[in-house]
Structure formats: C-alpha cells, structure tokens
Fold:
Amino acid sequence: MSDGDLDALRAQRMAELSGGGGNNAEKQQAQQEQMRAQEEMKHSILSQVLDQQARARLNTLKVSKPDKAQMFENMVIRMAQMGQVRGKLDDAQFVSILESVNAQMPQSKPTVKYDRRRAAIDSDDDEDYGC
Structure:
C-alpha cells in the first residue's frame, strides 16, 4: 500500500468513528435486521432439509454442544445450497453427517492432573514409630 492509500484509509476510519450517534444506531438496527433475516433463512432451510427426528436430534445437540451443532447446521445448509441433499435427511443420514463433522472438529482431550502431595493430606502422626 502506498502512503496515499493509507491516508485514505485513515480518513475513512476517522469519518466512521466521528459519525453521529444516530447513524451508529441505524447501522446497529440494520445489522440486527440482517442477522434476524439470516437466522430466519437458516431455520427455513433446515426445516425443509431435516425431518422431525433429525430436527429433534439437532436441538438436543444444540443444548449439549452448541459449537458442533453450529458446524453441522452450516454443513447441511451448504449441502442443500449445492444440491447435494435429495429430500429430507432422516436420523441415519443425520448421524453420518454428524460423524463427518466430528472428523473435522479439532479433538481436545480433557486432561486430569492429580496432586500427589501426600504429606499435607496424611492424618497419621509421625510420632507413632515406637508402638
């Protein structure tokens, strides 16, 4: 980037930051409307693509692992937009797609660390040597 480009970017950024408060609220309202419209579109696509059992399983997955459910939703929507989904997905197809999502997700194994400081926990007196 040249200095002129940097100056133009700085000027644009300063104009955005110094914009009126009403303009900011309008932008925020527009963003909320756009997000609402995207959510509505996502739900309509999922209701067209998934059968009742698959929707129930997806809702259960959302409660337990929201990041995995989000990844699954995105994958199914992409597949539907590309025309890879024929008819409604049943529970068995849901499980197979979920397994492919599991293969793509980074695996993080929980680690358990044991504290082996037994001296602090020991309730026996050290003076019992002679008994």
In short: Residues 33-104 form a domain with the Helicase, Ruva Protein; domain 3 fold (CATH 1.10.8.140).
